[in-house]
Write a structure and sequence with these properties.
6 strands, Macrophage_inhib_fac, dopachrome isomerase activity, alpha/beta, about 120 residues, cytokine, about 35% helix, secreted, about 25% strand
Length: about 120
């Protein structure tokens, strides 16, 4: 159920995308404390985005989870995802925002129902 959705204006080739999806899945699962089989990662590359009046490399992310989020967990996730984006896509951490959503079970659908 934890989902990481990342938007970036940097074009992402298939090899880099695969690396990011794999590494982000492992990191999100470990930090939130959920099995990897529950984690979904969406990577949207080449999206028109401007930040601070420029179109340099930038990213925006959202983490949605049923439980498992806290100020400490959020800080760890923010750091590890920023590091991953810096390493794989050369996006400086000062050009990356991330928003965290801790949702109730009834607001998360799966398998034709809610959790």
């Amino acid at each position: 159920m934890p989902t990481l959705n990342v938007y970036t204006n940097v074009p992402v080739d298939a090899v880099i995308a695969s690396d990011i999806l794999r590494d982000a899945t492992k990191a999100v699962a470990k930090i939130i404390g959920k099995p990897e089989s529950y984690v979904m990662i969406l990577l949207n590359g080449g999206v028109p985005i401007a930040f601070s009046g420029t179109e340099g490399p930038v990213a925006y992310g959202e983490v949605i989870s049923i439980g498992g989020l806290s100020p400490t967990v959020n800080a760890k996730l923010s750091s590890i995802i920023a590091d991953l984006l810096q390493t794989k896509l050369s996006i400086d951490s000062s050009r990356f925002y991330i928003k965290f959503f801790d949702v109730e079970r009834s607001f998360f659908g799966f398998n034709g129902s809610t959790f």
